[in-house]
TrEMBL record:
Keyword Hydrolase found: yes
InterPro entries attached to this UniProt entry: Helicase_C-like (IPR001650), P-loop_NTPase (IPR027417), SNF2/RAD54-like_C (IPR049730)
GO cellular component, one term: nuclear replication fork
SMART domains from the UniProt entry: HELICc
Species of origin: Pseudoloma neurophilia
One family name in Pfam for this protein: Helicase_C
Protein name (database record): Chromatin remodeling protein HARP/SMARCAL1, DEAD-box superfamily
Length: 231
């Protein structure tokens, strides 16, 4: 996808954002998050609110880890498109080392996916796999990376574990770091404590070691937290 197409998508996303803002529901203690429509609206709003900070975080991660590979999960189009724009800018920056990436979401044809995965696994230039958590969290192996970033939270820890398992698979020789980017003043702050409790239950079943904590300074509107899984 070229920059113009991505920019057009960003413009469309901004129109959606304006529509969301007119219907904004403040997240507070008495917000009914058990209502699916409310929950979905709050998740979409969180994506729009924190996409800029997420882009900056990923850009800095790539700068600080110039040879490492990275798997990034997102859900909403505004987040996927925003991150891809940052990756395109990195690709086109002549000051950087040769760089490329793959993106797999619901629009990616099945017959192309394995070839994209193979390039990520074998080509050192292909450093980032940008994936939809609902479309690419199962059935592929990406253990050439040992870092996963969730740019959006998912309320079901089973989906998170499935996504992590794209990297934490047979053949992975390193500890896997899973980084969650929490949006400040968004639904993330309400979902995160509940998600931690569920992950702690899974830890007792030997599914990952929860080394939770701040893994860096707050990047604008997001705060990174990490958990680890050993090989």
């Amino acid at each position: 996808i070229n920059n113009q197409k991505i920019n057009n998508k960003i413009v469309n996303d901004q129109k959606i954002n304006n529509q969301i803002q007119t219907k904004k529901l403040e997240v507070h203690s008495n917000t009914d998050l058990s209502d699916k429509n409310t929950l979905m609206l709050e998740y979409k709003l969180a994506a729009h609110q924190k996409v800029g900070s997420v882009k900056n975080y990923i850009k800095k991660w790539l700068e600080h880890n110039p040879t490492e590979k990275l798997v990034v999960f997102a859900h909403h189009r505004v987040m996927l498109n925003g991150i891809e724009l940052t990756l395109q800018e990195t690709t086109n920056n002549s000051d950087n080392l040769p760089f490329s990436y793959i993106r797999i979401d619901g629009s990616t044809p099945q017959h192309r996916r394995q070839g994209m995965v193979y390039s990520f696994q074998t080509d050192p230039i292909v450093r980032v796999a940008l994936l939809s958590i609902t479309s690419a969290s199962t059935g592929i192996t990406l253990h050439s990376s040992n870092t996963v970033i969730f740019t959006e939270l998912w309320w079901n820890p089973g989906n998170i574990l499935q996504a992590e398992d794209r990297v934490h698979r047979i053949g992975q020789k390193n500890m896997v770091s899973i980084i969650f980017l929490l949006g400040r003043n968004t639904i993330d702050e309400h979902v995160w404590p509940k998600l931690i409790q569920k992950l702690k239950v899974l830890e007792k079943m030997d599914v990952g070691e929860n080394v939770f904590g701040d893994v860096g300074a707050r990047e604008g509107g997001v705060l990174p937290f990490k958990r680890s899984r050993t090989s």
